[in-house]
Amino acid sequence: MSFLDLALRRRSTRSFAAELVERERIERCLEAARLAPSVGNGQPWRFVVVDDPKLRSAVAAAAINEILGINRFVSRAPVLVAVVMEPARAYVRIGGALKGKDYRSFDIGMAVMQFCLQAEEEGLGSCIIGWFDERKVRRLLGVPRGRRVPLLVALGRPADEVLLVLDATVGQNSVNQARAFGEALPLTGIVLAKMDGTARGGVIVTVKDELGLPIKFVGTGEKPDRLAPFDAQRFAASLFADDAPG
Ligand SMILES: Cc1cc2nc3c(=O)[nH]c(=O)nc-3n(C[C@H](O)[C@H](O)[C@H](O)COP(=O)(O)O)c2cc1C
């Protein structure tokens, strides 16, 4: 696969199959992360792989906020990886102080990205998690005092598709409907039906923005051949064409 194909294919995965991930695949992701550039080649990170079920569910719980509905999917990830920020080398610290930057965040961002791209190459899904109770995670993993844990990565085989069919003419109600289904099922995408003359494209933006779910197919008629894979670029272009929908 070309690099551009890999970059195009990678998406945050928020729905995982309940399957263990082989150690060798995780190790290749770690190797890709290790090869990432870092300031002064300091590699100021440590990746802690959490796949013990009990510990993993405790770490997952630290990322979930039930009231705000944030990160619930993390509890279904078969592997969680915590990234511990290690102290920078003295000259990197001095350089950072002179320039007013903590270079370690850049380094970790790049290493995590290489980890996620290798995961994609392995047929695995990943999602970077920045919203979690860091103190809890540090305590659970026995991270030494003074070390930060800036990110977690959820990793696993993506679940088979669970698609919800929405009626594009219903507007905001569709979004409420999808939200309710999403609480009960690990949805992986949306099929928008009735995207014909009566529906404006706006609902597509609303669904993506509010639910964070990709639109997989769009239906413009009642026959199977009117169901087409959704192509965002072509759709956006069609909005400005003379025969724009709606
Ligand atoms: C530093 C960082 C922190 C993130 N934290 C979270 C998070 O806590 N929960 C989540 O669901 N997604 C999180 N994401 C994923 C982003 O929402 C996602 O990458 C973005 O919406 C783009 O979507 P894509 O990854 O599918 O291309 C995070 C991404 C980054 C880079």
Descriptive key words:
elongated, 4-stranded mixed β-sheet, 246 residues, Rossmann fold, alpha/beta, binds flavin mononucleotide, 4-stranded antiparallel β-sheet, 39% helix
In the sheet with the most strands, the strands line up as 1-2-4-3
Distance between the termini: 38 Å
In CATH terms, what is the fold-level topology of the largest domain? NADH Oxidase
Report the uncertain regions. Answer: none
CATH homologous superfamily identity of the largest domain: NADH Oxidase
Global Rg:
21 Å
Overall domain count: 2
| Approximate shape | elongated
CATH architecture of the largest domain: 3-Layer(aba) Sandwich
Give the DSSP E fraction (strand runs of 2 or more residues): 15-25%
The run of helices and strands is HHEHEHHEHEEHEHEEH
Structural class: alpha/beta
Q: Largest sheet, if any?
A: 4 strands, antiparallel
Count all strands and give the number: 8
In quaternary terms, these chains amount to: single chain
Describe this structure in words.
Helix content is 39%, strand content 18%. A four-stranded antiparallel β-sheet has the order 1-2-4-3, with helices on both faces. A four-stranded mixed β-sheet has the order 5-6-7-8, covered by helices on one side. It folds into two domains: 3-156, NADH Oxidase (3-Layer(aba) Sandwich); 163-239, Rossmann fold. The mean pLDDT is 89. Strand 5 (163-167), helix 7 (172-184) and strand 6 form a beta-alpha-beta unit. It has helices at residues 3-9, 23-34, 53-61, 90-99, 103-121, 134-141, 172-184, 202-211, 232-239, and strands at residues 45-50, 79-85, 125-129, 148-156, 163-167, 189-193, 215-219, 227-229. It is of the alpha/beta class. The chain is built from nine helices and eight strands. Flavin mononucleotide binds at residues 11-12, 71, 127-131. Flavin mononucleotide (FMN) is lined by residues 11-12, 71, 127-131.
